[in-house]
Amino acid sequence: MPEDTINFLKRLAEQNPERGIFSAVINDKNGVTVRLKSGLVINDILPESYDIVNIKNSRPRIQMLKIIIDTSLLHNLYYQAGFAHEIGHVIYPNEQQESDEIYSLEFEVLTQKFFTKPLDYRLSIISKQLKLKMNNEIKAWEAGKPIADLIGVDRNKYEELMILGLQGHYSAQVDYISHLIKDNCPDITQNTQISIFNSLTNTDDQMRFSEFTEYNRKMVEMNNRAVNQFDQRIGILRT
Ligand SMILES: [Zn+2]
User: Fold this and answer.
1) E-strand stretches of the chain
2) Digit-coded pLDDT (tens) for 12-60
3) Angle 155-184/119-143 helices, nearest 10 degrees?
4) pLDDT surpassing 90 at residue 95
């Protein structure tokens, strides 16, 4: 594609009044081709290595270079919003570069050498993961907007699902880094200052470790609420 995909999609959405999904056809290997009423075939705008795959009762998600959806839920506007967001993940510029950076931080935390670094350094690497992952998530929701427009999801529904998605993601990530701190920072004390990226206010919040423990407890509660509501909206049955 000669120009970047997001600008192409924005222009297509502006120029083309047709909204909606025309068809989602499943082939014999569970691959899906999604064609929009505007004529756009979603598969054509994905990076080359990506496929769309049909899996029953699955949230829209990405795994091993596959965008996974349940086509039987694709009539639901919230489900469509979630699908547009997943496409956002793979089409925004620098996505590969950012994923690589996140991966290298995740890897560093697993190395023996990481243990020998000063506490401040270890904490900074751990918090940085949280910040990069959330920024990545926010950008993917932003990048998914022109797709949502072309599919015909109204902005209110898209943003409603985005807020639940970001809350669920953020709270899960906070809980994840609390485990990383526990495993990698046995020398931390209740008074140690840490910097926690707050994606709900888009600020770096300074807090003591004792405050973080309480913060994390609230996040675990928020996670249950947000994930339940998210699944309810998109029509997933939880087992
Ligand atoms: Zn996402």
Assistant:
1) 21-26, 32-36, 51-54, 61-63, 66-69, 193-198, 203-208
2) 999 988 999 999 999 999 999 999 999 999 999 999 899 999 999 999 9
3) 160
4) no
Reported residue count of the chain is 239
What's the 213 CA to ligand 1 centre distance in angstroms? 25
> Residue 118's closest CA among 178, 188, 211, 174?
188
Question: Look-up: residue for tokens 């670094």?
Answer: 117
The closest of 233, 237, 238 to 85, measured between CA atoms, is 233
Name the pLDDT band for 238 (thresholds 50, 70, 90).
confident
Residue reference for tokens 């890897």: 107
Tokens representing 145?
């907007």
SS3 of 207, please? strand
Note the pLDDT of residue 199.
85
The residues facing 236 across adjacent strands are none
| The dihedral sign for the CA sequence 168, 170, 172, 175 | negative
Tell me if the pTM is above 0.90.
Answer: yes
CA of 73 to the centre of ligand 1 (A): 18
- How far apart are the CA of 30 and the centre of ligand 1, in A? 22
Task: Show me where the domains of the chain are located.
Answer: 5-234
Distance 186 CA to ligand 1 centre (A): 31
Q: Identify whether the C-beta of residue 42 lies closer than 8 Å to the C-beta of residue 57.
A: no
How far does the centroid of ligand 1 lie from the alpha carbon of residue 108, in Å? Answer: 23
| Distance from Cα 45 to the centre of ligand 1, integer Å | 18
Rounded distance between C-alpha atoms, residue 153 and residue 151, angstroms: 6
Q: How far is the CA of 25 from the centre of ligand 1 (A)?
A: 24
